[in-house]
Amino acid sequence: MIQAIRGFKDIFGKEAKCWQEIESVIKDCFKLWGFEEVRLPLLEKTELFKRGIGDDTDIVEKEMYTFTDKGGEQITLRPEGTASVIRFFNEHKLYGTDKFFKFFYLGPMFRYERPQKGRLRQFHQAGVEFLGEASPLAELEVITLLFHIINRLGIKNTELKINSLGCSECRSAYRESLLNYYGSKEEQLCDDCKRRLKVNPLRLIDCKSEGCGKLAESAPLVTDFLCQDCKAHFEELKKLLSENGISYKESPYIVRGLDYYNRTVFELHSTDLGAQSALLAGGRYDRLSGSLGGVHIPAVGWAMGIERVYSLINGEDVIKNDKKVFVAFTGKDVENAALSLVYKLRGLNVSTEFDISGGSLKSQLRRADKLCSDWVVIIGENEVKTGNYQLKNMKTGEQKLVVEKELLDCLKN
Ligand code: HAM
After folding, report:
1. Which of 178, 372, 379, 383 is the least crowded, having the fewest Cβ atoms under 10 Å away?
2. Which residues of the chain have pLDDT under 70?
3. In ligand 1, which atom is closest to the CA atom of 81?
4. What pairing do the DSSP bridges indicate for beta strands 122-131 and 249-250?
5. Cβ neighbours of residue 4 under 8 Å, at least 6 residues apart?
6. CB-ligand 1 contact for 129 (6 Å cutoff)
7. What's the DSSP call for residue 248?
């Protein structure tokens, strides 16, 4: 038998039900905060991610699913949603049509990473992008939203880590200082970092290799190089978070693996997840639109990994158990009456099943049990003649004879 591709996963049964609930809670919260959905293509021109995320990031260097299509164009399965949102925003000339733009998306992303617990090659993100506001109030807006979602889903033991990467001016002073620090230690760096040192020394700070991690501990910190404005922005954000009851930890080692960020970056970690503990990550990216040839517009956003959210949730607690009804009938003669009742109940939004192959009453009742039905209606010739139905409560075992109106009233949600 042909099997699924490594790192690609089927989601079905109880897990799929739990996903539906997670997505429905998330969408509900997006609505409360005024974010509107944008459904973007899974494939984009490779150039979008190369220029958007950065040529020398791990994602672009090693992890993209890139193909040449039949027309000879280089295309890539989207590894994330932010660059696509900016592409869409500019392509549809939305700038100027409103003061702010709040978009959300939900769907699969693709990265050729080494699969492990909490890390897949096709994974799913729910993300928000808030365009048009440069003040830290925009960060507050998206961060309060993420906590609302986490609370609604009942996720505990999380920690918000924040950092500021400053602007291009702060960054060039910081870059100099990193080059100085690492210059004499080049031999101790891993091969990737030896190369990164030349193109993007900031990357060295979050290298996962043991040797580089040790060196990073004594490396200069970006927050010591912030200019007045960037410092004020970061201080204001921290004040806003505290005033709004959001606890956070300053974490100068968060530099993020995508190049488009400036000023604020943040990650939400869970102590209940293993090595892949980031539930969600994001930040400000005021230069991305301009760097892709679009308008200059400040922006901030985050994306949440749904697989990681799912692994923290007790499915049974999240799945909403709507009433389930099973209609059983005693032969061909009453099949029509049974079907008409099934469709009437479904028309009233009651989840209703029956055994399409008929069969003995006993086998139908077994099926009702297997489907965890809450109620069973039994229809025989007598019931059709008298208009009285047998209604059985499967939890209590209680059975009573009811007229149709009574039955519908009792089973309506
Ligand atoms: P990211 O940190 O690359 O950021 O991904 C965000 C989240 O997606 C991670 O925190 C994690 O929960 C999940 N995730 C990433 N890779 C995988 C994987 N291979 N398997 C399972 N889950 C994964 C971004 O994608 C940015 N676009 C976030 C953003 C939005 N920044 C501004 N706006």
Report:
1. 372
2. 315-316, 413
3. 27
4. unpaired
5. 10
6. yes
7. -
